[in-house]
Amino acid sequence: MRVILAIIATLLAAPSNADMLSTASKFNNMHERSINFLGVNARKIAWCGAFLAYVAKRSFRQPPTNPNMAASWKSFGRPVAYRFARPGDVVVIRSGKRFHVSLFHHFDNKRTYVYLFGGNQSDRVQLSRYRISSIVAVRR
């Protein structure tokens, strides 16, 4: 009985990536003009990392050092191979010299594209499509 209780307590204490996705989804379609609660000027800086830090804190997760920089999310949690990504995992992508961070939602049927939910995607919080080849890191 003690072993079962210990297992249940461990599972309940483990961070849930699904919690981050459900927390983030509460802000679906919110435009950058409405995100002053992040404490950043969204019209002047990329705010994807700031949004994810806000979501992580509300989900009782610790954001990385300097969370406003998308690339810093490559050190969040633990690494996961992209093909094993689950809804709510943190995904860092690269486009040219810039990075973007968001939450994994799903792959398309052909596994050519990944759908990510996050901030600073067309100036709002939303689900957007990216090429799988742009994935730099998946973190859980």
TrEMBL record:
InterPro entries membership: CHP02594 (IPR013423)
Keywords assigned: Signal
Leader sequence residues: 1-18
Protein name: TIGR02594 family protein
Organism, as annotated: Mycoplana ramosa (Mycoplana bullata)
